């Protein structure tokens, strides 16, 4: 494959620093580096320094703050769908990849590059997510996945490669974490090392964002989330941007021990994977969104959304964000959110999120209908007799026939 210029998704760490040099040597090409700031909580300017030290021209180094776009255009749409993969996972890593793929393609167009490259391994889901996204947005783009080509398949080999070529690698101060971690504004994940044993209990020191539930405050924290069109627009009466919402909920949720998860999931590439996740803000958002929908969505719309959700979640998990079927589902979901407005009151206490109130000017909840007291003829209870008998007709017919036939 002939390549003149490639845009590399670059973190400045060991893997992508080696990839940068390997691309130059293997393809004799120019390399443009792209580092996405999606709230991973790390200083990103060192990536610029490392890229410069490796000969990348300043104009070929991109470090982009994508936090607002990430939450507004990727996180919030997923939460409008109440999307959870396999009943537990809030798609924290999955939803970041289509945004990175989108920006890789944009930079390739801006710089005249004919290829993109990433550091995802050949065993994981991320290679699929990056590349499906890239091909959906630029069908003729070339993709270079070094982990599927080279023989540098261990940390020791990568370090040896870097040492031989004087690639600057920052030495970790103190004890190195035994876990592979990936973070963005929505979550932080922990995989590998001891986590590969599904019987292993993660140590308390592994968790970075959340207080242990038993050490969380002994008094509950109450918050009120205001919704407009299915999205949170204010917290405790203070208007916030989507990014500010997630930052605030991560902080308050983490302080109350909310959002820890330990699961074994089914990867798209065919294997089972065990991981730990911290998603404090997302856990709060999921509970609150279902609460505001409970009073503003029609029954059958609610049930249809619940039926569509697993398909939607699987599409996002497997990397089909830019597919026509996901976009079709998104339009349906977003249509359903037109009247999802109002306020949800939550109690946060030692790892738990409890809904304690919900109100909306668009509420379909009718107290006069549901009351156990006298309802002034709003609901004629005698009508239930015919309703039940009509719905029981097929069951009675089946029972009578089976009884007659022994």
What does this structure look like?
This protein starts with a strand and ends with a helix. Strand 13 and strand 14 form a beta hairpin. It is built from 12 helices and 14 strands. The chain is 40% helix and 19% strand. Helix 4 packs across helix 5. The protein has helices at residues 14-27, 45-53, 67-80, 97-111, 126-137, 155-164, 242-255, 280-296, 299-318, 324-336, 367-370, 383-404, and strands at residues 5-9, 30-37, 61-65, 115-117, 142-144, 180-183, 188-191, 221-228, 231-235, 238-239, 260-266, 272-278, 342-349, 352-359. The chain is of the alpha/beta class. The strands form 3 sheets. It has a 5-stranded parallel beta sheet, sandwiched between helices. It is elongated and about 85 Å long. The longest helix is centred in the last third of the chain and has 22 residues, at 383-404. The model has no long low-confidence stretch (mean pLDDT 94). It has 2 domains: 5-164, 3-Layer(aba) Sandwich (Rossmann fold), CATH 3.40.50.620; 180-297 and 339-359, Argininosuccinate synthetase, chain A, domain 2, CATH 3.90.1260.
Question: Summarize this, please?
Answer:
This protein has 406 residues and is an alpha/beta fold.
For this structure, the CATH topology of the largest domain is Rossmann fold
Question: What share of residues is helical?
Answer: 40-55%
How are the strands of the biggest sheet laid out side by side?
A: 3-2-1-4-5
Q: Any idea what the CATH superfamily of the largest domain is called?
A: HUPs
What is the CA–CA distance across the termini? 73 Å
Instruction: Indicate the radius of gyration in whole angstroms.
Output: 25 Å
Low-confidence stretches: none
> Helical element count?
12
Mean pLDDT: 94
What would the principal axes of the Cα set say about the shape? Answer: elongated
Quaternary state of the chains: single chain
């Amino acid at each position: 494959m002939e390549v003149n210029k490639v845009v590399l998704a670059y973190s400045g760490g060991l893997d992508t620093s080696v990839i940068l040099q390997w691309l130059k040597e293997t393809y004799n090409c120019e390399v443009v580096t792209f580092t996405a700031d999606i709230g991973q909580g790390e200083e990103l300017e060192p990536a610029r320094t490392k890229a410069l030290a490796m000969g990348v021209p300043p104009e070929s180094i991109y470090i982009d703050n994508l936090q607002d776009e990430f939450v507004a255009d990727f996180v919030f749409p997923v939460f409008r769908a109440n999307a959870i993969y396999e009943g537990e996972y809030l798609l924290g890593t999955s939803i970041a990849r289509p945004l990175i793929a989108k920006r890789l393609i944009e930079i390739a167009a801006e710089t005249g590059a004919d290829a993109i490259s990433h550091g995802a391994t050949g065993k994981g889901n991320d290679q699929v997510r990056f590349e499906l996204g890239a091909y959906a947005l630029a069908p003729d783009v070339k993709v270079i996945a070094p982990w599927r080509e080279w023989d540098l398949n261990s940390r020791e080999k990568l370090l040896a490669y870097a040492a031989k070529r004087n690639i600057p690698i920052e030495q970790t101060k103190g004890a190195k974490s035994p876990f592979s971690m990936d973070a963005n504004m929505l979550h932080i994940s922990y995989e590998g090392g001891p986590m590969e044993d599904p019987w292993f209990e993660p140590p308390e020191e592994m968790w970075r964002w959340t207080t242990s539930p038993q050490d969380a405050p002994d008094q509950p924290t109450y918050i009120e989330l205001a919704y407009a069109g299915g999205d949170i627009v204010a917290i405790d009466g203070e208007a916030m941007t989507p990014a500010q919402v997630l930052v605030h909920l991560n902080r308050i949720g983490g302080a109350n021990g909310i959002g820890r998860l330990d699961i074994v999931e089914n990867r798209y590439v065919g294997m089972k994977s065990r991981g730990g996740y911290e998603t404090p803000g997302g856990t709060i958002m999921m509970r609150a969104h279902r609460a505001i929908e409970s009073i503003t969505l029609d029954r059958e719309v609610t049930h249809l959304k619940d039926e569509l959700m697993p398909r939607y979640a699987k599409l996002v998990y497997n990397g089909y964000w830019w597919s026509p079927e996901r976009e079709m589902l998104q339009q349906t979901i977003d249509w359903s959110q037109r009247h999802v407005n109002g306020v949800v009151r939550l109690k946060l206490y030692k790892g738990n999120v409890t809904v304690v109130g919900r109100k909306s000017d668009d509420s379909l909840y009718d107290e006069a209908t549901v009351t156990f007291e006298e309802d002034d003829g709003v609901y004629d209870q005698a009508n239930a007799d015919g309703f039940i008998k009509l719905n029981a007709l097929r069951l009675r017919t089946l029972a009578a026939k089976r009884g007659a036939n022994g």
